[in-house]
Design goal:
Elements: E1 3-10, H1 11-21, H2 37-48, E2 54-62, H3 81-88, H4 92-98, H5 103-131, E3 137-139, E4 144-145, E5 150-151, E6 156-158, E7 160-161, E8 166-170
Helix pairs in contact: 3-5
Length: about 180
């Protein structure tokens, strides 16, 4: 009896690893369009089974759907000095920068630190917004479409998007 396997991919981490490995990778493509994904995921399944044959049922591609910042809103140091101080003291670097300051000097330093955090959020949000244009298909060989339980004959497979992940399809017949 052959073993069965599912593969779960941390999508963004995997994508940025590919970008780092291949200098000619066009970063505007979500993934390399000419890659042999079916063979690649089958190879991973066999390697995970110590080189023994395995029936790969499905590959799931996980990508975040949104970014939740903690705290949701950054405090205004001029109006919420104590709250801003407590929040920023959680970061050792920030704490050392405003340690011993008071009055206007403290507020000025807190405002600088809040601005620094806001810029980091903006950079992360822009990066995330770039992720949001993930293509609706990933090029692979003929696969079962998980949403309709039928075989796709073309060279592209619909991405099944869900809150927690993307289903890149299954092997075999019928829904598994």
């Amino acid at each position: 009896m052959s073993k069965k396997a599912c593969i779960f991919i941390d999508g963004e981490n995997f994508r940025y690893t590919i970008i780092g490995l291949f200098e000619n990778f066009d970063k505007h493509d979500y993934l390399p369009q000419r890659a042999k994904w079916t063979e690649f995921f089958d190879w991973i399944a066999v390697k995970a089974n110590y080189g023994n044959p395995v029936n790969r049922l499905r590959t799931y591609w996980y990508a975040i759907q949104g970014i939740d910042y903690m705290p949701y809103e950054l405090p205004d140091p001029a109006r919420q000095t104590e709250k801003a101080t407590r929040l920023l003291a959680k970061n050792e670097e920030f704490m050392l920068e405003h340690d011993g300051l008071s009055g206007d000097d403290l507020i000025t330093k807190l405002e600088e630190q809040i601005t620094k955090l806001s810029r980091k959020r903006e950079i992360m949000q822009k990066r995330f917004d770039g992720w949001a244009c993930t293509p609706r298909t990933v090029p692979v060989k003929s696969r079962e479409s998980a949403d309709q339980g039928r075989s796709q004959a073309d060279e592209e497979e619909p991405i099944q998007r869900a809150a927690s992940g993307t289903d890149l399809g299954s092997r075999g017949s019928g829904r598994e």
